[in-house]
Structure to design on (210 residues):
């Protein structure tokens, strides 16, 4: 149901200071009680407000209409992740720059032969290397990447809120989305199945707010 401008004003008032009598609402809006009566009837009949005799009007939390925070708790990373822009650790820094442009990303996930997570290379890592005297065509990204076990990652079934918190807390742009497995040597490795980035969070924020 679409509320009128006046009804929205009434709801905002009652939300701020429940309970409010019809008289108090009318005074605040500089209207007569009679003018307000149809609006108050609609708002109570549709369950937006609750009228308690001799007490006043209360705002009723809408069941099933959860807040953005609640939704971000419920939504899973797996449903919002992007494809991983992943490269092998043997590629040169120069080729990593090319890959960033062709994939339109600011960070690359570095993987091994079995798509297992090895590290991350970001724009700043490359800028830092470019300031030095390294041969960008010769030096592999393995030399400049942030490597495991120092990579912050996320699972598909973690909440998008948890993932966004990791991005904010560690001041990074990209989280590799991984699935852990044990290889034949008994080591725990992390297969890269996607990436979750600040852009995913921004898009989701816009979607939830619209
Ligand atoms: P930028 O370099 O554009 O600021 P980031 O903020 O993502 O991009 O990266 C900052 C630093 O953190 C870089 O050194 C990068 O290698 C490292 N880094 C990027 N992503 C991760 C991650 N998921 N876990 C750990 N370190 C990361």
């Amino acid at each position: 149901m679409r509320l009128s401008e006046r009804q929205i004003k009434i709801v905002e008032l009652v939300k701020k200071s429940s309970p409010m009598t019809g008289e108090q609402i009318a005074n605040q809006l500089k209207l007569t009680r009679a003018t307000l009566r149809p609006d108050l009837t609609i708002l109570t009949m549709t369950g937006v407000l609750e009228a308690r005799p001799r007490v006043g009007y209360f705002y009723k939390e809408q069941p099933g209409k959860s807040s953005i925070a609640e939704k971000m708790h419920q939504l899973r990373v797996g449903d919002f992740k992007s494809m991983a822009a992943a490269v092998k650790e043997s590629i040169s820094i120069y080729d990593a720059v090319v890959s960033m442009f062709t994939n339109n990303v600011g960070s690359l996930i570095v993987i091994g032969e079995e798509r297992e997570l090895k590290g991350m290379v970001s724009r700043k890592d490359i800028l830092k290397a470019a300031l030095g005297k390294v041969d960008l065509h010769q030096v592999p990204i393995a030399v400049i990447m942030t490597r495991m076990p120092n990579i912050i990652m996320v699972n598909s079934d973690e909440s998008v809120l948890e993932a966004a918190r990791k991005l904010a807390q560690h001041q990074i742009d990209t989280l590799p989305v991984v699935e852990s497995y044990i290889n034949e040597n008994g080591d725990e490795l992390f297969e890269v199945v996607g990436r979750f980035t600040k852009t995913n969070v921004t898009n989701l924020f816009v979607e939830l707010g619209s």
User: Anything to note?
Assistant: The chain has a mean pLDDT of 92. The chain has two domains: 5-64, 77-209.
